[in-house]
Amino acid sequence: MNNIFQRHRRLRNSDSMRALVRETALHKEDLIYPLFIIEGKDVKKEVPSMPGIYQYSLDRLDEELDEIVGLGIQSIIVFGVPKDKDEKGTSAYAEEGVIQQTIAFVKENYPQLTVIADTCLCQYTDHGHCGVIHEGDVLNDESLTLLAQTAVSQAKAGADIIAPSNMMDGFVAAIRAGLDEAGYQDIPIMSYAVKYASAFYGPFRDAAQGSPQFGDRKTYQMDPSNRLEAIREAQSDYDEGADFLMVKPALAYLDIIREIKDRFPLPLVAYNVSGEYSMIKAAALNGWVDEKSIVMEKLIGMKRAGSDLIITYFAKDAARYIDER
């Protein structure tokens, strides 16, 4: 028979051969685990729409942190769930706020962990929007002042990385200036540069208790139909001094991840969001999918698309799967 075609199967004929030519790998160092810390005492409350994900009060957080460290996960991102909310989200930047106390606790007791502070107001405002409201509109420039104040308070508490997620125009420039002025020139910014107004966020809003009380977030988060707008958003944050760029959500936006990775020489973070987590969990609990296989395939897909790091609620599961290889 004439050899008129390529024998691609030669490189797939054994486990060791497939491992030898594997192009993409997932490591524990790639994983960032999200944590929700709620004000109160002796709280460990499962999020109903996110099986296996809990809100913890600070006095019980060590249970979760011990497990995270034991699994070899090196980075966490923290979200605060305050008891009191107001129109300007003042507990977001309070010196003794829930997230500031959390950051200080983690850095004192688990100094090996990299602590990333989500910087937004939506969990702290009584209207659930990410900035200051006037006559039903989210005011951009007035919100920047409070977001910079929040970032400085988080850096002061000991955060290693500031991760602004609010999608106000100019937020990286405002936060960079605020951090520099306060003496935190060495604290990097992980910008939620490309954040779509996505239906995949629903379970997160249960966990963070931050649903908008009126309207939606489409005047500041992006239209899922847009690709060029993603490039413009990333370019702005790059020019303003971001140290990492993030695309959120991940699964439905792998094309955007690849495009941003190819255009900007910064570490790229994919946020594997709550809806993506809950769909797989629900299917696995019903016996419809093999959870381990589908989780690892999905995370490898995000790495192959160009992600250097992945924020994922599956981080603990993935760390166990990596150990089993």
UniProtKB/TrEMBL annotation:
It catalyses: 2 5-aminolevulinate = porphobilinogen + 2 H2O + H(+). Keywords: Heme biosynthesis, Lyase, Porphyrin biosynthesis. Its EC number is 4.2.1.24. Pathway: Porphyrin-containing compound metabolism; protoporphyrin-IX biosynthesis; coproporphyrinogen-III from 5-aminolevulinate: step 1/4. One of its GO terms (molecular function) is porphobilinogen synthase activity. Belongs to the ALAD family. Catalyzes an early step in the biosynthesis of tetrapyrroles. Binds two molecules of 5-aminolevulinate per subunit, each at a distinct site, and catalyzes their condensation to form porphobilinogen. PANTHER family: DELTA-AMINOLEVULINIC ACID DEHYDRATASE. Homooctamer. This is Delta-aminolevulinic acid dehydratase. It comes from Pseudalkalibacillus berkeleyi.
